[in-house]
């Protein structure tokens, strides 16, 4: 097996475009587009705190169940995608389907998704709730 | 910093030159990102109807049926800590999904219907982002 030891990968023709042959050996995919640009695991209970993250610079509790997540390196535009999961429970057990739980990208009346931050909110039975388990992943174009 | 200019590089493995676990990738614009942190460390699609089975997966060694709607997925290569981030979707009849019991060697997902009753599901997915051991 050959191994390439390298610090930085950038495209030769276009710095922002590197192609990788996929698992099937025929089709190709984009290295840049396939990488997740940010991810975070945090708790909103008592003190909103990061457990672990990538490309998250600051993290602000803006109210019960509501959190601003700011990127270290901004996105190119606000058309990115991702996922947000919340247990919608302050309990460490987090094993209940009775919370009528949901998590959303965005908060009513706010600029929810910009190149530099995204707002997330956790609900339980119709009210915002500080939740012990929150997982978010962002994919899209880095600035 | 090492320099290599080539149109196509053929290799079986990538490691960082200065630090084996750190490779930087030029992003879509001018900023850079981390190859290691940007890669999903595991993903799975599985079924829990009739029998619990993996349809397809990456870095998932085994799957355990914990009863109706409950499934534990074990990593082939463990995570470095239990603070990883999970995204998941259950693709059947408005099914909800819960995560619990994150550990370096596995994580658990449970599926339920809008009435909060746990149910088995024909299509369940999960993706893990975080630090590999």
Task: Explain the overall architecture.
The complex is a heterodimer of chains A (143) and B (133). With 143 residues, chain A is mainly β. Chain A has one domain. Chain A has 1 helix and 13 strands; from the N terminus they run E-E-E-E-H-E-E-E-E-E-E-E-E-E. Chain A has one helix at residues 31-34, and strands spanning 3-5, 8-9, 19-21, 28-30, 38-43, 49-54, 56-63, 66-71, 81-86, 102-105, 117-124, 127-128, 134-139. In chain A, the strands form 3 sheets. In chain A, strands 7, 8, 10, 11 and 12 form a 5-stranded antiparallel β-sheet that branches. In chain A, a hairpin with a 2-residue loop joins strand 7 and strand 8. The two termini of chain A are 35 Å apart. Chain B is 3% helix and 43% strand. Chain B has one helix at residues 35-38, and strands spanning 13-15, 24-26, 32-34, 42-47, 53-58, 60-65, 70-75, 85-90, 96-100, 106-112, 124-129. In chain B, strands 5-4-11-8 form a 4-stranded antiparallel β-sheet, with no helix packed on it. In chain B, strands 6-7-10-9 form a 4-stranded antiparallel β-sheet, with no helix packed on it. Chain B has a two-stranded antiparallel ribbon with strand order 2-3. The model of chain B has no long low-confidence stretch (mean pLDDT 90). Classes of the chains: A mainly beta (143), B mainly beta (133). At the A-B interface, strand 1, strand 2, helix 1, strand 5 and strand 6 of A face strand 1, strand 2, strand 3, helix 1 and strand 8 of B. Strand 1 (3-5) of chain A pairs parallel with strand 1 of chain B.
Secondary-structure blueprint:
The complex is a heterodimer of chains A (143) and B (133).
Chain A: E1 3-5, E2 8-9, E3 19-21, E4 28-30, H1 31-34, E5 38-43, E6 49-54, E7 56-63, E8 66-71, E9 81-86, E10 102-105, E11 117-124, E12 127-128, E13 134-139
Chain B: E1 13-15, E2 24-26, E3 32-34, H1 35-38, E4 42-47, E5 53-58, E6 60-65, E7 70-75, E8 85-90, E9 96-100, E10 106-112, E11 124-129
Antiparallel strand pairs in B: 2-3, 4-5, 4-11, 6-7, 7-10, 8-11, 9-10
């Amino acid at each position: 097996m050959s191994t390439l030891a390298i610090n930085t990968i950038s495209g030769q023709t276009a710095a922002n475009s590197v192609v990788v042959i996929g698992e099937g050996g025929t089709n190709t995919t984009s290295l840049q587009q396939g990488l997740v640009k940010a991810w975070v695991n945090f708790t909103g209970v008592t003190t909103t705190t990061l457990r672990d993250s990538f490309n998250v610079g600051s993290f602000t509790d803006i109210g019960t169940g509501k959190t601003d997540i700011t990127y270290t390196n901004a996105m190119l535009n606000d058309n990115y995608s991702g996922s947000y999961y919340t247990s919608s429970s302050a309990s460490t057990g987090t094993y209940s389907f009775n919370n009528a739980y949901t998590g959303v990208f965005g908060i009513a009346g706010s600029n929810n998704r910009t190149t530099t931050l995204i707002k997330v909110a956790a609900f339980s039975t119709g009210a915002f709730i500080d939740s012990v388990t929150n997982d978010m992943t962002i994919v899209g174009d880095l600035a | 910093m090492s320099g290599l200019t080539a149109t196509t590089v053929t290799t079986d493995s990538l490691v960082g030159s200065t630090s084996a676990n750190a490779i930087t990738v030029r992003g879509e614009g001018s900023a850079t990102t981390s190859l290691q942190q940007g890669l999903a460390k595991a993903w799975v699609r599985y079924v829990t109807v009739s029998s619990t089975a993996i349809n397809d997966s990456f870095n998932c060694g085994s799957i355990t049926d914990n009863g109706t709607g409950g499934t534990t997925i074990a990593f082939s290569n463990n995570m470095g800590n239990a603070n990883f981030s999970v995204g998941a979707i259950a693709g059947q009849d408005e099914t909800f999904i819960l995560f619990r019991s994150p550990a370096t060697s596995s994580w658990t997902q449970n599926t339920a219907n809008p009435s909060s009753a746990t149910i088995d599901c024909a299509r369940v997915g999960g993706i893990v982002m975080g630090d590999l051991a």
